[in-house]
Amino acid sequence: MYDILYNDIFLTQNSFPMKEWHLEHVEKTIKKFITGLSETASIWEKRQHKRYGTIANCCKQVDYDLKHGVTIDEVIQVLHKVKNDETFAPVLQSENAILRFNEIEKYVLSLKNPSTE
């Protein structure tokens, strides 16, 4: 009896303890990529954006989060939320933002259906 109690209390495995954090990270990464660089960016922000603001880096961050417990369906839900939620409406106002959103959406959907590339 004590063995069963011990296993239930102390040996419960959590394979992805920071899954919620990684899901938030996906949302922040996608939002930051779609937003792009502001008109009044400093030299430091321009340099960081040139280094880390590319589609390749965004895809790498999404892949990292997928490895740590976030599912592709959850990433698609985040994309749907960004596209349809009114809190993200200011983010998608420029034409460049819509193009960047389409890029990341295309990448995520290619992960969902890898044979249809």
Question: What does this molecule look like?
Answer:
The protein has 117 residues and is mainly α. It has one domain. The chain is 68% helix and 0% strand. The protein is built from six helices and no strands. α2 runs antiparallel to α4, α2 packs across α5 and α5 packs antiparallel against α6. The mean pLDDT is 86.
Query: Uncertain runs with pLDDT below 50, 5 residues or more?
Result: none
Mean pLDDT over the full residue set: 86
Oligomeric status of the shown chains? Answer: single chain
SS summary, helix count: 6
Rounded to an integer in angstroms, the radius of gyration calculated over CA atoms is 18 Å
Q: Give the ordered list of helices and strands.
A: HHHHHH
In short:
The chain is an all-alpha fold and 117 residues long. 68% of the residues lie in helices and 0% in strands.
Descriptors:
117 residues, 0% strand, mainly alpha, globular, 6 helices
Helix and strand topology:
Blueprint: H1 2-10, H2 19-35, H3 43-52, H4 55-67, H5 72-84, H6 95-112
Helix pairs in contact: 2-4, 2-5, 2-6, 5-6
